[in-house]
Amino acid sequence: MVEVPGGFHWSSYRANALGARDPVVTPHPLYRDLGGSDETRLATYRRLFADELDIELLQRLRDGTNGGFVIGRPPFER
User: Fold this and answer.
1) What contacts 43, CB < 8 A, 6 or more positions away?
2) Number of separate domains in the chain
3) What is the full DSSP assignment across 36-64?
4) pTM of the model
5) Of 43, 16, 11, 10, which is closest to residue 28 (Cα–Cα)?
6) Each residue of 14-33: pLDDT tens digit?
7) Which of 23, 31, 38, 65 holds its CA 20 to 30 A away from the CA of 59?
8) Which residue range(s) make up the domain with 39?
């Protein structure tokens, strides 16, 4: 993986968090709902990535991805 979210070549992070122009990124309505201005949306989006994932959650995500099964609350997983 990468050290920072924007480090992945195909990531939309640079557009959604840093304001970089990307001709293939179209702002989603949920993204637009993050704030009333570009500045607010960019800052709010960056905060979504501010915390590192808990190691246990990260392992569940890896196991689920590698095993081809869903991840979620128990009723959803059933």
Assistant:
1) 35
2) 1
3) SSHHHHHHHHHHHTSSPPPHHHHHHHHHH
4) 0.71
5) 16
6) 999 999 999 999 999 999 99
7) 31
8) 5-77
